Automatic annotation (TrEMBL):
GO terms for molecular function: DNA-binding transcription factor activity; sequence-specific DNA binding. Residues 23-87 form the HTH araC/xylS-type domain. InterPro entries: AraC_XylS_family_regulators, Homeodomain-like_sf, HTH_AraC. Keywords: DNA-binding, Transcription, Transcription regulation. This is HTH araC/xylS-type domain-containing protein. It comes from the Bacteria. SUPFAM superfamilies: Homeodomain-like.
């Protein structure tokens, strides 16, 4: 059964809002990867329950927020190893 137009628009708006929140979390991890971050803090700032944040983040980016953070740190370490430290 098809949903009415307003229901589809509402679902689309909710998904866009969730995607925007996930993008903000990802952007924060990208900016602040060098400092201690945890899922509770990220969830609190996104105003989401931690388990929901983890599930939605994994759906959007293929990794949990913590795994994404570790990957970001490893990428930065690799870059520093290749190009030396920029002090």
């Amino acid at each position: 059964m098809c949903r009415p137009g307003w229901a589809r628009a509402r679902v689309t708006a909710q998904r866009l809002n969730e995607f925007t929140r996930m993008r903000r979390v990802r952007d924060r991890i990208d900016r602040e990867y060098a400092r201690p971050l945890d899922v509770l803090e990220l969830a609190r700032d996104a105003d989401l329950p931690p388990r929901f944040l983890t599930r939605q983040f994994r759906r959007a980016y293929g990794a949990s927020p913590y795994d994404y953070l570790l990957t970001r740190r490893a990428e930065r370490a690799s870059t520093l190893r290749l190009h030396g430290t920029a002090s």
